[in-house]
Each structure stands twice: as C-alpha cells, then as structure tokens.
C-alpha cells in the first residue's frame, strides 16, 4: 500500500492540475479576475494565533500566506518534491526561522504533540485520504481546545455533478481519465455530511464558504451552486 501511494502521490502538484483545453477552460480564463482561490478563502477564514499547520501543503501557497497571521507555521505533505520546492521558496532568514516544511505520510498520524497548535487547515486533501476519521482524530488531538480547523473538499452535490449522474456519468470532482473515472479521489462529500462528520469528531461548525468564480454569490445556495465546500470549525 505504501509503495502504491508513493507512485500515485509523490509527484509535483502541477501534474494533477495541468492546464486543460475546452470551452469551459476558455470561459474560466475570461472570468479569472472574478475567481477566488481556495487557499485565499482558507486564509481569510483564519484568525491570528501562534502556531499553524497546513496539511497537504503542496509547495506552500497557504503556508506562505499564513506567516502573516501566525508566529510559527508548518506545512506537511507526502510529496517530497513539493516539500523541497517549498523549502527553496523561503528566502529570508526571518522566514526560515518561522516557516517549516515536513515530508510525512499522513496515514501514519501527525508528528505534533497534544494540544500544540492554534489552527490547522486541510485544503483539497480529505478526499484523497484512505481514512478521514483517523486524520480528524489526529487533528483534534493536536489542536488546542477552541483551536481552528479549516477544511476544503469538492462538493459532490454541485448542480453540474447532479446532471452528470442523471445522464449516467460519474461526476469529475478532480481529474478523470479518458474513460471518465477519477482514481485519485477516494471519498465524496456534501455540505450536510461534512458538517455531520466534523461534529461527530468534536468540532463545532462556525462558518461555511466556497471558492471559485463569483464565489460570494454561489454561497447563497452552497450545496447546489458551489463546486467546493470550505468550512471553518473549532475544536470543542
């Protein structure tokens, strides 16, 4: 299992997010100025604190942002090449003392002490993890009481996905292959079951949000109109 995960996930972030062609991509390029990036949404939801961890950080986009709100920030990822790229992007001595990147297998738990962090984010990760319940138990363990947890996942109930199901097709929430199957996402979430999942693991939902084009309008009916779900919760 470990060797399989290394072959699949130990590749650069761009491999799974390469530019695509088509009408929808062309339209997105025209509307790009109205797009709100998911890392930016997660950052905007964070309150300032002392220690922050971004799980599945890639090469550190959110980690770099979070240094402005926290005294010490950590990024952890399974992909060694992304972690190395993140380390190389840290230029100043002050940032090197403040920003830390760790190459680690999330399925083996999180290498932090109990109640040692003020905030944790998990953006575009939970749908990839073999055991989300185990990961949330670990996040609950390392967060201080009242600590913030920001999670972002694709919204399986988004209207275009519902249409695809009606037409007998599998919704493409990530990166489907030529036969229309997304092999990278092993779990699917809707707003309601993500809320219930968080609450069952000791978190209180305090705010829901979304990213993407015209995100502030799509939040009016998030479960139907938004392609993703971003939830801010606190450890109870």
Q: What does this molecule look like?
A:
There is one protein chain. 35% of the residues lie in helices and 25% in strands. It is α/β, with parallel strands linked by helices and 236 residues long. It has helices spanning 2-9, 23-30, 38-45, 61-66, 80-89, 93-98, 132-142, 159-166, 191-200, 215-218, 222-225, and strands at residues 35-36, 49-55, 70-77, 99-103, 117-123, 143-154, 203-209, 212-213, 228-235. The protein has a single domain (2-235), classed as Vaccinia Virus protein VP39 (Rossmann fold), CATH 3.40.50.150. Helix 4 (61-66) links the parallel strand 2 and strand 3.
CATH topology: Rossmann fold
- Main sheet record: 7 strands, mixed
The helix/strand series, from N terminus to C terminus, equals HHEHEHEHHEEHEHHEEHHE
Helix content: 25-40%
- Quickly count the helices: 11
Question: How far is the first residue's CA from the last residue's CA?
Answer: 34 Å
Q: In the CATH hierarchy, what is the class?
A: Alpha Beta
> What is the H level of CATH, i.e. the homologous superfamily?
Vaccinia Virus protein VP39
Mean pLDDT score: 87
* Domains (count): 1
Which structural class do you get from the secondary structure elements? alpha/beta
- Which architecture does the CATH hierarchy give at level 2? 3-Layer(aba) Sandwich
Based on DSSP secondary structure assignment, what is the total number of beta strands? 9
Q: What is the CA-based Rg, rounded?
A: 17 Å
């Amino acid at each position: 299992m470990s060797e399989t995960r290394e072959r699949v996930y130990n590749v650069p972030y761009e491999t799974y997010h390469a530019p695509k062609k088509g009408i929808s991509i062309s339209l997105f390029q025209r509307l790009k100025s109205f797009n709100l990036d998911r890392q930016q949404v997660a950052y905007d939801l964070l309150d300032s604190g002392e220690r922050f961890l971004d799980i599945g950080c890639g090469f550190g986009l959110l980690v770099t942002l979070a240094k402005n709100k926290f005294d010490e920030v950590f990024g952890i990822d399974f992909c060694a090449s992304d972690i190395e790229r993140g380390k190389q992007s840290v230029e100043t001595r002050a940032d090197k003392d403040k920003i830390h990147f760790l190459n680690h297998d999330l399925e083996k738990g999180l290498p932090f002490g109990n109640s040692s962090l003020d905030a944790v984010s998990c953006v575009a990760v939970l749908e990839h993890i073999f055991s989300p319940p185990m990961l949330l138990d670990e996040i609950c363990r390392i967060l201080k009481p009242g600590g913030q947890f920001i999670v972002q996942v694709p919204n399986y109930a988004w209207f275009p996905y519902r249409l695809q199901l009606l037409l007998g097709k599998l919704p493409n929430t990530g990166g489907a292959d030529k036969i229309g199957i997304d092999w990278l996402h092993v779990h699917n979430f809707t707003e309601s079951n993500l809320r219930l999942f968080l609450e069952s693991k000791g978190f209180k939902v305090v705010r829901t949000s979304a990213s993407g084009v015209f995100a502030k309008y799509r939040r009016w009916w998030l479960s139907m109109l938004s392609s993703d779900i971003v939830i801010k919760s606190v450890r109870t």
